[in-house]
Amino acid sequence: MSDSDVETPTVSHLSAPVVWSCNEWDPLEEVIVGVVDGATVPPWNHSLAATAPAHAAWFFEKYGGSAFPQDIISNASRELDALSNRLVKLGVKVRRPDILDFNKEVTTPWWSSKGLYAAMPRDVLLVVGDTIFEAPMAWRSRYFESYAFRNLLMDYFRKGGRWLTAPKPTMAETFYDPNYSPDRAIIEGQKQFVINESEIAFDAADFVRFGTDILAQKSNVTNAAGIEWMRRHVPSGFSVHEVEFDDEHPMHIDTTIVPLAPGKLLVNPNWVNTMPDILASWEILRAPPPVKPYDSALYFSSDWLTMNILSLDEKTLIVEEQETPMIEALTGWGFDVIPVPFRNFYPFGGSIHCATTDVRRSGSLKSYL
Ligand code: ABU
Q1: 213 has which bridge partners?
Q2: Where are the alpha helices (DSSP H) in the chain?
Q3: Helix (H, G, I), strand (E, B), or coil: what is residue 165?
Q4: 350 lines ligand 1 (CB under 6 A)
């Protein structure tokens, strides 16, 4: 390629920032919705076993290394498209990542692996104010996942968005604890994790935004070094606070605490026994038990995907349509609920919050905690 083939980034500064989101509930203007095309099932391995339910091992043993079964992809894809169309009708600009073939084996100096998917923008990208962060991730199968979003990121960059990419860990053997076992996730009162602190790692979904304050948890994909890296790089005016809950196998905070509106927090009754002091002034709704049984097609996740809700604004929530107890509880708490079909996406390990990343919400930076 000659230099003349390379497009020079032309930066246009819009009157409103192209990337701007400070919390989970301001009015949603632009969102990325994931895609499942090209998704590959990772082989059952040590880091996956740290959080995937043991009952799902058969799925990974049968399909590991192969494309997801086509019927699972088609059904989920239909629901992602329906969600996108619904959001457009609600006045939200929807962007989609590129479709990549994650069944290609990639090799680094330390390992070889196939990929996973571009289904969960929430895991990969985090918008803090005017900056979009690309997470380094901690699974080998997710090492190149952010490239499905690169064209979008370049577009935001050209339009004046700030974009930061965290340093990726090598994901060499030395990064994982060979002695970690999900059966011994707490030793002498200390939570154990499959990743160590030798390198920086985090998934964006271990962070949740409350305006000037961002809460983050250590997990099997996010270490203290990753939280510290974010603390040093968030734009001026934001602070990152580490919190810990009672999920013994944490991976992603968005089925543990979900802020829905200023002062209103949905919490997981199994994993939140003690509220961190920083949230003491917030009104709490303990989530009703999930409708979907744990041992159904939930290959990557707990059954608390029921809590994985996207806020359209501080009054309106998008919720999976069959989660009736949740819909009733939220309606009773004063919210308007837009039910959408999303059950067929659950086998990929997330629901509506995971499948989306808000790139722009109106509103200004404020303190709520
Ligand atoms: N990725 C969100 C799923 C977290 C959970 O297993 O509850």
Answers
A1: 210, 239
A2: 46-49, 57-63, 70-89, 121-124, 150-158, 224-233, 324-332
A3: strand
A4: yes
Beta bridge partners of 164: 133
CA of 52 to the centre of ligand 1 (A): 9
> Cα–Cα distance between 119 and 355 in angstroms, integer?
6
45 CB-contact burial (10 Å; exposed 0-12 / middle 13-18 / buried 19+): middle
Strand pairing report for 207-210 and 213-216: antiparallel
Number of CB atoms found within 10 A of residue 286's CB: 11
* pLDDT per residue as tens digits for the range 142-179: 999 999 999 999 999 999 999 999 999 999 999 999 99
Q: Are 43 and 112 in contact (CB under 8 A)?
A: no
Burial 78-111 (b: 16+ CB within 10 A, else e): ebbeebbeebeeeebebbbbeebebeeeeeeeee
- As a whole number of Å, the end-to-end CA separation of the chain is 52
Catalytic choice (252, 254, 353, 358):
252
Q: Annotated catalytic, 295? A: no
Q: How many CB atoms lie within 10 A of CB 164?
A: 15
| Digit-coded pLDDT (tens) for 40-78 | 999 888 999 999 998 999 999 999 999 999 999 999 999
Torsions phi, psi for 329 (to 5 deg): -65, -40
Select from 184, 178, 216, 223 the least CA-distant residue to 202: 223
pTM score of the predicted model: 0.95
